[in-house]
Sequence to fold (355 residues):
Amino acid sequence: MKKTQLQFLSELLDAPSPSGYEGPARRVWCAALEGVADELTVDVHGNAIATLNPKGAPHVMLAGHIDEIGFLVNHIEESGLIRFQPIGGHDMRGIAGRRVWVHAASGPILGVVGKQPVHLMRNRDRSTSPPQASELWIDCGFQKKKEAADVVAIGDPITYVDSFALMRNDIAVARGFDNRVGAFVVAEVLRSLKRAKGLRARVSAVATVQEEIGLRGATTSAFGLAPDIGIAVDVTWATDNPGGNAREVGEVKLGAGPVLSRGANINPPLLALLEAAAKKANISYQLRASGRATGTDANAIQLTRGGVATALVSIPNRYMHSPVEICHLKDIVNSIKLIADTLRTLTPKTRLIPD
Fold:
């Protein structure tokens, strides 16, 4: 990955972006596409839309959701401790003891998620289900409610402290690879297409919002854009670790290439174009079966208006929905090339009606 791309990726991943509070990440994304896109807008929902070749055909929508899971301030105790609600799906067993940022209007405030010490728990409580959000709190060091309420407001978003870092062998770790990496990929596809010649399609790259709470941004942006073709870019579970279950969800390895889904959510001719482009460019790819809706922006796009020819390109991800998600830089780079190469083959006569 080029240094400029790595800088963009790290800035995007470090920007706080819980569902409904995507502004900081959206600003990073839009700044990266200034001078690249022919048109760059933000809709009333908060989706950022960057368009290349606006008079071209067919019209392709690329979607990578820019929101992450997080929390928001729900209540301030008389003691100054903060109660919170989750945004999106969390494994509640991994929350206690984490450092967090409370993103107040005056700036981020450091806090820690507290719970009852294990020494004081009854034996039956130690072996029961994970704690509920109502049993946890955030301690920012405030001494009383007024001190906290002077700087923290109900509804302020909260994220984990964890930030982007490189590990060995081109593997990176970050909070929220799911799915600001998808927003990164669609932006870089647009940049790649800008440099190349011969693009006939109109391409709208969208950093969609609120995917983690119901594919909301993809639903509204796809309706507004009315594309002919949609490609969602998201992460998927890597099963090459003891926590994976290849027999149940399919075999996916980190570093083995982008994952292409097959199933009811996917347009077969569009999938064939992606596979042909991968083979022509000698890009390794993996397949995952999806017997129903994929649970990604691809589902919302496919069902827009009279229907959209849709595909899903996924990046293998370990430890999804935790503060330490891991992806391989090679998979990210190959996803960009695969999608860009595929879009360069499209013409107004490209047929996407299934046989």
